[in-house]
Design a protein that fits this description.
This protein has about 325 residues and is of the alpha/beta class. Helices cover about 45% and strands about 10% of the residues. It binds adenosine-3'-5'-diphosphate. Adenosine-3'-5'-diphosphate binds near residues 49, 50 and 283.
Length: about 325
């Protein structure tokens, strides 16, 4: 199968992006949120799909069971800014949702989120994951998903990931924005990881409607995290319902479930790497050299200085 052409990264208001996340920007910006919308936000590869399915089951597992057997999760929880060929625009899918609440996924940095979500005090869940596992997951995802730039070799991908936006900014400064003629072959959209997680963490300090969760905590204590989510969202599922949700969102079950494993999703080649790949904390150990691990730890130690924000690379 011939691979579709990969998109170029460019500087979008100071953040590296590709056209697939910005082509519908004027409409995304004007999205009309409703007060009961629930937003699921994250940097890519942080466990977004896991959180989306958890929320989908919590809200609709009992009342809309027919949806469980018909619509893939990516249609039930639209990806707001997504604009790719052969698939409805995320913003249009969100507009067309008839359920309450509407669950809406985004990877936007916090300062890009359309104003109406904040004006309506929408409940928002941000999912964060340690950078080493995000980088590994992103590397394999970029190999199989042609909406991202091709990752190239691991070593280069890792360096560019850690450089994040700075590489693009320096490049623009030097070359007066003529970079589109010389695209980056492999880096990532949505800007630098640390700016994303820190931006959302800082927002949480002043916004009680923002609940910040960690992939590692979900892995270690799913039941406890579900309880915290329910308390944040004002939900009171029975013990039986909670157990059924816990079973449904287990990695193996989501991997086997055609509605959550991205079977038939546009532009993904699951033969290269499955979407539900490892689902673990610590797979980075199979990719990083000792020197790379040390360099990465030191890099993010300098970048992440917000009080209380800590990432675990092991559980
Ligand atoms: P790996 O590539 O490390 O396996 P996102 O949804 O943000 O794109 O994140 C995808 C990552 O979350 C992938 O990580 C995927 O396997 C993992 N994931 C998805 N569902 C999961 C689950 N139920 N339990 C654990 N990890 C899960």
């Amino acid at each position: 199968m011939e691979e579709p052409p990969r998109p170029e990264l460019f500087d979008f208001h100071g953040v590296s992006m590709t056209k697939f996340f910005t082509d519908n920007w004027e409409n995304v910006k004007k999205f009309k949120a409703k007060p009961d919308d629930v937003v699921i936000a994250s940097y890519p590869k942080s466990g977004t799909t896991w959180a989306c399915y958890l929320l989908d089951r919590l809200y609709f597992g009992k009342t809309h069971p027919e949806k469980e057997t018909s619509l893939p999760l990516y249609m039930r929880v639209p990806f707001l800014e997504l604009c790719i060929p052969g698939h409805p625009k995320g913003k249009d899918l969100a507009d067309q949702l008839t359920v309450t609440p509407r669950l809406i996924k985004t990877h936007l940095p916090v300062h890009f989120v359309p104003d109406t979500f904040w004006e309506n005090n929408c409940k928002t869940i941000y999912v964060a994951r340690n950078p080493k596992d995000v980088i590994v997951s992103h590397f394999h995802f970029s190999r199989m998903n042609s909406i991202h730039p091709a990752p190239g070799e691991w070593d280069g991908f890792l360096q560019r990931f850690m450089d994040g936006n700075s590489e693009i900014k320096v490049y623009n400064f030097k070359h007066k924005c003529s970079f589109v003629n010389q695209p980056f072959v492999s880096s990532v959209a949505y800007g630098a990881w640390h700016e994303h997680v820190v931006g959302w963490w800082e927002k949480k300090q002043t916004n009680p409607n923002l609940h910040y969760i960690f992939y590692e905590d979900l892995t270690e204590n799913l039941g406890g995290e579900i309880d915290k989510l329910c308390s944040f969202l004002g939900l009171t599922p029975s013990d039986e319902e909670k157990q059924s949700i816990k079973d449904a969102v287990r990695f193996d079950n989501m991997k086997d479930n055609k509605l959550t494993n991205f079977t038939n999703a546009p532009l993904m080649n699951l033969k290269i790497s499955p979407f539900m790949r490892k689902g673990k904390v610590g797979d980075w150990k199979n990719h990083f050299t000792v020197a790379q691990s040390k360099q990465c730890d030191e890099h993010y130690k300098q970048k992440i200085t917000s009080p209380g924000l800590q990432f675990r690379t092991e559980v």
